[in-house]
Amino acid sequence: MAPSGSRNVKRGCKRVFYWIPVFFIALIVAWSYYAFVVQLCLVSIEDTWEKVLYLIVYHVIFIMFIWAYWQTIFTKPMNPLREFCLSYSDKELLHREDRGESQQEILRRIAKELPIYTRTNSGAIRFCDRCQLLKPDRCHHCSVCDKCILKMDHHCPWVNNCVGFSNYKSFMLFLAYSLLYCLFITATDLQYFIKFWMNGFPDTQAKFHILFLFFSASMFSVSLASLFIYHCWLVFKNRSTLEAVRAPVFRHGIDKNGFSLGSSKNFRQVFGDEAKYWPFPIFSSLGDGCSFPTCLVNIDPEQSSSPTSCNPPPKSKTEGRHFPFKPMGESQSRLLSSTTSWTESDIAADDKNGTNNPLMTVENEA
Hints:
This protein is mainly alpha-helical.
């Protein structure tokens, strides 16, 4: 009982420790709200119309910033579906084999029924020993969350969450609105910051808030701008942070642009097809997180396109490239819900309706 109790205490301490960066950001944002709204707008600005305009624009940006930050923190990262997990018999068979090559033969047999095209650097099937599953393409195991995360980008301490398929759009909007928040504060605070140095500002408590507000907003603007630009580059290249560091390996070898479909399609894969949802931190990404269209032509011919169906071959090399259908036939809303069960009735319903992934076929561009 004692060792178990000590482990629980350590686990609890770790959870509290992981929330410290989030609490720090919350305190900074709360102080900035007080400094801008109370000390700058209500106390220092004398012009009524200027004051009203600043407050309206500020609160619009502030609400969007907090909304995106909240969604990034509390959106649960998606894990691979049950089809990627080993069955009990496969686990027993895998554990009985001592030789690595024999284990790989078992994994290759299972992988043929799944839309998996990436490999390890040695060309082996990507398998997670901790989760006992075959990793879908772009899926990685997070050592902090101790789970395999679909299209994992990175584990961000500032949100205490994994950034991946389910919340990457929210993370991008969080960066965008936080940068806009800091730039707006810097721009509106600048004239009063200059007055402070020109001794044209009354000696009150407000001037110190205005001084530190300008410095903190401008410094955060620089760091956020570099991070936002970098992730914009990743979005238009259709890469995650992990893939930028280490390019994915396909059957034919390493290809850093293996998932790139062109800037427009890459952007829509993250933000969705409907532009009206782009500014809001609500899930609208395309796909299911388990399979992704690629720009590759030489895909493993023995690989199954899905557990229940296969791809028809392309009619010609110039007509287009065909990619596997959505592997599990589940909708995006079901993937993001708390229930991730999979039944034969779901397969039959999806087969009957002919559900397809809108990103599964990419036409050649001129």
